Amino acid sequence: MPQPVPRRLVLASTSVFRRELLARLDIPFETADPGTDEAELAGESPAATAERLSLAKAKAVAARFPDALIIGSDQVAYLGERRFGKPLTHERAVEQLRLMRSHTVIFHTGLCLFDSRTGNAQVRGVPTEVVFRPLTDAEIERYLRKEQPYHCAGSAKSEGLGISLLSAMRGDDPNALIGLPLIALCEMLREAGIAVP
């Protein structure tokens, strides 16, 4: 009996962290740069921003992959009304960590699985509560000099030395904090007919 041709799977991201996470599922995939404007919209909640951008990233590469399942993901870190993006500089990373110390910061990860054949989109949000220790300025400085997490939202890499800055994490999937909620993604892939495992 002939086997169905497997669907092409595309990760709409240039993130090495997301690529490494997706590789854990042992499913062949390709990557594509979505080149999406990641600006928030006026009056948009952090959760809505992350989920909208996950869909936008997936749709941005759909024309290049007309018969594929495309994964988009985006993350917004926030504390109250303040959002924490990628700091890009040492000075901004210091400022972020000073503001986050002794607080619980929400890292909301939006996830989309877009079927470019049908136009169907599954979109979810996976929040993670991250409790930062009461960090000293010296600890912040030592951490940043060692790990240089200037391309990570919130200036802390939980999969690396950044774990030492935290006192607790609460959420449904530890992978969400790194940038790709694999538990939710597996559910979406199964819904789309992809066998996992």
Notes on the protein architecture:
With 197 residues, the chain is an alpha/beta fold. The protein has a single domain, classed as Alpha-Beta Complex (Maf protein). The chain is 30% helix and 26% strand. The radius of gyration is 17 Å and the shape is elongated.
How would you summarize what this structure contains?
With 197 residues, this protein is of the alpha/beta class.
Task: Describe the secondary-structure layout.
Blueprint lengths: L7 E4 L4 H8 L6 E2 L14 H15 L7 E12 L2 E3 L5 H11 L3 E12 L5 E12 L4 H11 L18 E6 L2 H5 L3 H10 L6
Parallel strand pairs: 1-2, 1-3
Antiparallel strand pairs: 3-4, 3-5, 5-6, 6-7
